[in-house]
Amino acid sequence: MAVEAERDAYHHGDLRDALIKATDAILAERGLEGFTLREAARRAHVSPAAPAHHFGSSAGLLTEVAILGFLELVRHISIGKSAGSPVERLKKQGVGYVRFALTFPGRFHLMFRHDLLLADNERLGAASEQALAAIAPTIRALRAMPDDEELDAPARAMLLAVWSTVHGFAHLALDGKFARIEPNATADYLLGDLLPQTLETLWPEPSAK
Predict the structure, then answer these.
(1) Of 121, 12, 133, the residue nearest 65 (C-alpha)
(2) Half-sphere exposure of 70 toward its Cβ, with a 13 Å CA cutoff?
(3) pLDDT tens per residue, range 104-152
(4) Distance, CA of 202 to CA of 137 (rounded, Å)
(5) Of 166, 178, 194, nearest to 96 (Cα)?
(6) Whose CB among 15, 166, 178, 202 lies 3.0–4.6 Å from 10's, allowing a Cys bridge?
(7) What residue ranges define each of the domains in the chain, with the CATH number in brackets?
(8) DSSP label of 180
(9) Phi and psi of 56, rounded to 5°?
């Protein structure tokens, strides 16, 4: 009876979307520790068995939310070549990355918890690669590489260094660690001043000739 009621209440695909939205809301409100399949089902107004039926497991459902997270991250860090010098573009993308983490902390924490996800999911892999690909043109510009040239070892190392910097910054911001050393550690200050200054210190503008 419960399955029949669910079919009556949802059109094709709507139940999946409802469960994904419910999970996203739980993560936003309670974090990973507050997520259960039963709670996702309750919020979606379906039987406790429905999430496992549609996603196979909690990992399957969480993977769908992680994919949404990576796609949203790509939107936050995608910029054009007209966005300024390579260093300015790097700072804007770094700010976009941390802004995403502060706006969607539940998704952000989930996206890198491979122990909770279907690590071999092709769509998840593709979504995460899109995020790295969004930064690659900036790395090429910083290293004066042609747009169509594959990143060499030094360029890949720079990409990982940039990612590590902004990812670590995001975690410190979410955990409130900057407040211990920066009295004015508001989000506006972190995004508008401290992070851009940090990135320019590590990757400064070339000296004018």
Answers:
(1) 121
(2) 20
(3) 999 999 999 999 999 899 999 999 999 999 999 999 999 999 999 999 9
(4) 18
(5) 166
(6) 15
(7) 2-56 (1.10.10.60), 61-202 (1.10.357.10)
(8) G
(9) 85, -35
